[in-house]
């Protein structure tokens, strides 16, 4: 089974090919313009390098968030269009779950994928490591680093671009050993495609639709609400 996976949940775009559960090729880069242009160019280049075309893909997969609102919409929309035109199935995989899937941590530790969000917050989730398996112990969070640190009660392995900006906060507040996986050394696009492979093998593709996972409202929604409030306030003032 050949799977094409893409991730546009952060500032870097990623594309990968997974064949029978093994990563065959992967390409990651920071877009020069927008994800909408670069993700297709990155995909075509990867296929050219592998001497394949889209017709040879059996399954498509895409990251569903949390992450950049615009990036997620572009990635999911692009893959839905490809799936429709090719007549291929499309699976969605959570961004944090994908990062967790391709990273390992010592037994008994906590694993924490952490991504930069907005307003000094991060996207994160906690996973308990037991015998190599990971059990998710929190929902997807949009949280201040200080509050995330308070949730960690054991040695922890962080992975993601949300660690470095708040490194000192984590080291100061977490009273346990801390390790960090450099991002994007094990970039989540691999996990997106590998999770899709697992879903397919288990016959659970229908349980993982390509629907965006948001843990907060987009800035566009917030700005629109503020605009409507301003208009309403103006109308009330004029009425008096």
CATH architecture of the largest domain: 2-Layer Sandwich
CATH superfamily of the largest domain: ATPase, nucleotide binding domain
Query: How big is the Rg?
Result: 20 Å
Poorly predicted parts: 218-224
**CA-based shape:** globular
Protein structure class: alpha/beta
Find the count of extended strands (DSSP E, 2+ residues): 12
Query: What's the main sheet like?
Result: 7 strands, mixed
Q: Tell me, rounded to a whole number, the average pLDDT.
A: 88
What percent of the residues sit in helical stretches (DSSP H or I)?
Answer: 25-40%
CATH C-level name of the largest domain:
Alpha Beta
Q: What is the CA–CA distance across the termini?
A: 68 Å
SSE run:
EEEHEHEHEEEEEHEHEHH
The proportion of residues in beta strands is: 15-25%
Note the total helix count: 7
Q: How many structural domains are formed by the residues? A: 2
Describe the structure.
By secondary structure, the chain is of the alpha/beta class. It folds into two domains: 2-94 and 187-220, 2-Layer Sandwich (Nucleotidyltransferase, domain 5); 103-181, Nucleotidyltransferase, domain 5 (2-Layer Sandwich). Helix content is 37%, strand content 25%. It has seven helices and twelve strands. Helix 1 packs across helix 2 and helix 3 (95-101) packs across helix 6. The longest helix has 21 residues, at 219-239. Mean pLDDT is 88; it is low at 218-224.
Question: In brief, what are we looking at here?
Answer:
The chain is α/β, with parallel strands linked by helices and 240 residues long. It is 37% helix and 25% strand.
């Amino acid at each position: 089974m050949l799977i094409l996976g893409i991730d546009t949940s952060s500032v870097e775009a990623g594309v990968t090919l997974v064949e029978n559960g093994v990563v065959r090729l992967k390409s990651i880069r920071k877009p020069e313009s927008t994800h909408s242009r670069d993700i297709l160019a990155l995909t075509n280049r990867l296929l050219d390098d592998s001497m394949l075309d889209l017709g040879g893909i059996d399954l498509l997969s895409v990251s569903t968030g949390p992450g950049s609102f615009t990036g997620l919409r572009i990635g999911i929309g692009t893959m839905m269009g490809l799936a429709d035109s090719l007549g291929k199935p499309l699976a969605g995989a959570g961004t944090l779950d994908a990062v967790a899937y391709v990273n390992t941590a010592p037994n008994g530790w906590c694993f924490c994928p952490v991504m930069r969000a907005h307003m000094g917050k991060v996207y994160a989730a906690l996973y308990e490591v037991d015998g190599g398996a990971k059990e998710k112990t929190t929902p997807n969070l949009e949280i201040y680093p200080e509050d995330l640190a308070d949730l960690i009660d054991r040695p922890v392995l962080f992975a993601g671009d949300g660690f470095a900006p708040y490194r000192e906060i984590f080291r100061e507040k977490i009273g346990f050993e801390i390790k960090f996986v450099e991002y994007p050394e094990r970039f989540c696009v691999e996990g997106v495609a590998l999770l899709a492979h697992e879903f397919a093998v288990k016959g659970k593709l229908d349980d993982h639709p390509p629907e965006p996972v948001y843990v907060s409202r987009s800035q566009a929604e917030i700005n629109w609400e503020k605009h409507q409030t301003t208009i309403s306030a103006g109308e009330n003032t004029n009425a008096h």
